[in-house]
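New here. Invent one.

***
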Amino acid sequence: MAAAALTALLVFLLTAAASALEPGHGHVPPHLTGCLSNNMETFNCRWSVGSFQNLSEPGDLRLFYYNRTPLTAPQENWSECPQYSMERPNECFFDRNHTSIWTTYTIQLRSRDQDVLYDETPVEVSFIVKPDPPVELNWTLMNVSLTSAHFDIMLSWKPPRSADVETGWLTLLYEVQYRDVDSDEWKAMNLVKSPHRSVFGLQTNVNHEVRVRCKMLGGKLFGEFSDSVFVHISSKVS
């Protein structure tokens, strides 16, 4: 009996130890949650305290970075976050003077006394561009079919105000999506470079919702969607 009880206890302890190592169990250490740029001119990095709520005060966690360029000396010259955000906790902002394109940053999250390195990640600004939403989305009726069953519209919008597209610093691709408001299924159209595009064959007497988002040419990250516009054309147009 004693041997059986000891075996059962050992199995229980081993199972508990294995469970504690699985994701979602045990302590989650402080960690970087990502870096993003909305314009390829500045960027920010954010982190989480994980389950270490005792490290929630400003200065408990500190962000350091090292920017590796072809002219960088062999030794790693680490610098602290140029500007900790006052509005959003756990965020560091890199202004234009501290942002370099097509170089590699190494970002580290450290303890207050720098004795503990919690997390580290490489960052290239050109890979983390996530533009802001396009603005001033609008539509114009182009045509109604002879049967009045369908109609065509022209959509237009403006680039995000934060993106410098006029000088060519950023080239954006736009994706238009639309749906019947009674449906959960969005239809995505092919990407376009211009801030306008036509939509053909919309059904009359149906409420349509339209939105647009964008990403950098060659980039992978889409920004958030614009505010939607709603389109409704009656089958009888005066």
